[in-house]
Specification:
mainly alpha; globular; two-stranded antiparallel ribbon; 7 helices; Four Helix Bundle (Hemerythrin (Met), subunit A)
Length: 251
């Protein structure tokens, strides 16, 4: 009897001392399938929140920092939100290609989030909130983004999106090229930089930050226009090429 009891005690102590069984994900493919889409969804939420903050922002002229102290924390928060959203754009695309888990949700929502983020930024920066009085009935667009510039950004995106829809509806490939990717990178750097300069520095006439903002805006708009030209020529070339039948034989 004592032997049996001792054996039972040993078994109990062994059960207690045994290390816990590690948690094992039975299907790691689930994470790979859903993580890129989750990042895309996060970017949509961040883009909407960014536009809401920027559209509701009401700034004061930073012509006299002693009267209107800097920094402007609301603008800083909006700029950081834009940066985080732009970073998720790089990650979700990379992961979906690396893991080969491209989905219809990602194909639709990924460009949608990009358009809301970039177009929303330029529309807000061209709005009245960034038009400040400078005296004698004159105003200053402190962001240096004029309304026509926001229209240019919107028109470029609408044109490329329309061409992509037309080409892909005929079975062609109209994926983003190097010009489009470079444009997106430039816009992703320019927008938070402009917002940060307004939030942190004096941006009145003649101020160094004002000059930097103007150069950055004009360079970004020029690059946006130029980046659309390769898409137009590419679409023209593909539309002139007769489509092949599904079986690959000549028409």
């Amino acid at each position: 009897m004592s032997t049996l009891a001792d054996q039972s005690d040993v078994e109990k102590r062994g059960a207690i001392a045994a290390p816990p069984t590690p948690l094992v994900i039975s299907d790691p493919g689930v994470v790979r399938r859903h993580l890129p889409n989750a990042l895309t969804l996060v970017r949509v939420v961040l883009a909407v929140a960014f536009v809401v903050i920027l559209s509701r922002w009401r700034g004061t002229p930073h012509l006299k920092p002693e009267v209107h102290p800097l920094p402007d924390w609301n603008l800083i928060a909006a700029g950081l939100m834009f940066v985080v959203a732009a970073v998720t754009d790089a990650f979700d695309g990379h992961l979906s290609r690396k893991w080969r888990v491209t989905s219809q949700f990602g194909r639709i929502m990924d460009p949608f989030a990009d358009k809301v983020l970039v177009i929303g930024a330029f529309v807000c920066l061209a709005g009245p909130a960034f038009t400040w009085p400078v005296g004698a009935g004159q105003t200053l667009q402190v962001s240096a983004v004029q309304p026509w510039m926001a229209i240019v950004v919107l028109a470029r995106e609408l044109l490329v999106t329309s061409l992509r829809g037309l080409i892909e509806s005929q079975g062609g490939n109209f994926a983003a090229n190097w010009a489009g990717k470079a444009k997106m990178i430039l816009q992703s750097v320019a927008v938070p930089t402009i917002i940060g300069l307004i939030a942190l520095f004096e941006t009145g006439p003649g101020a160094p930050a004002r000059t930097l903002i103007q150069w950055l805006v004009w360079f970004t708009i020029a690059a946006t226009i130029v980046s659309g030209i390769p898409y137009v020529f590419r679409a023209m070339a593909q539309l002139r090429t007769p489509a092949r039948p599904a079986n690959g034989s000549a028409p």
